[in-house]
Amino acid sequence: MSGEAALHERKQEKLLTREAIEPRKVRVDRTGGTGVEIDWKDGHASRWTFAWLRHGCPCATCVDEREGLGLEPGQAKPEQRAANALPMFKEPPRPKNVTQVGNYAVRFTWNDGHESGIYSWDYLRRVCQCEECTAS
Ligand SMILES: [Zn+2]
Ligand SMILES: [Zn+2]
């Protein structure tokens, strides 16, 4: 299956109600560094680590890159380095800044400088990582 077909299928997979994509409460644990939690109006609760969110960046560049590598949102790309090079220390992803975009999305400025991803509530609900959602 081509990447485009897979994406198309995924988009049609779930029909979400308005309550399902409106957050009741959003918690971003920037100081503790654990991640983001959202309680939705339909009673569902989601949480993601910052690493997941960074690797699940929905901007066009990151989506293209993931599709090229065959990665799912949230999957880190395999490290590319010369065989005899020392592994470089990389700081774990963490947002330097978090801003709300209108009433439909949130935007992160990551510690690696990347900031083009607009994480809509709709997108976040679709990539909910809870047991129930990942099982289906
Ligand atoms: Zn991106
Ligand atoms: Zn879920």
Overview in brief:
This protein is of the alpha+beta class and 136 residues long. 28% of the residues lie in helices and 24% in strands.
What does this structure look like?
This protein is 28% helix and 24% strand. The longest helix has 11 residues. By secondary structure, the chain is α+β, with helices and mostly antiparallel strands. The strands form 2 sheets. A 3-stranded antiparallel β-sheet has the order 1-2-3. The protein is globular. The protein binds zinc ion (2 copies). The site of one zinc ion has 7 residues, from helix 3.
Which sequence of SSEs, written as H and E, runs from N to C? Answer: HEEEHHEEEHH
What global shape is seen? globular
Instruction: Please work out how many helical segments DSSP would assign.
Output: 5
**Percent helix:** 25-40%
- What ligand molecules are bound, each kind once? zinc ion
Strand order of the largest sheet: 1-2-3
Give me some keywords for this one.
28% helix; alpha+beta; binds zinc ion; 5 helices; 24% strand; 136 residues; three-stranded antiparallel β-sheet
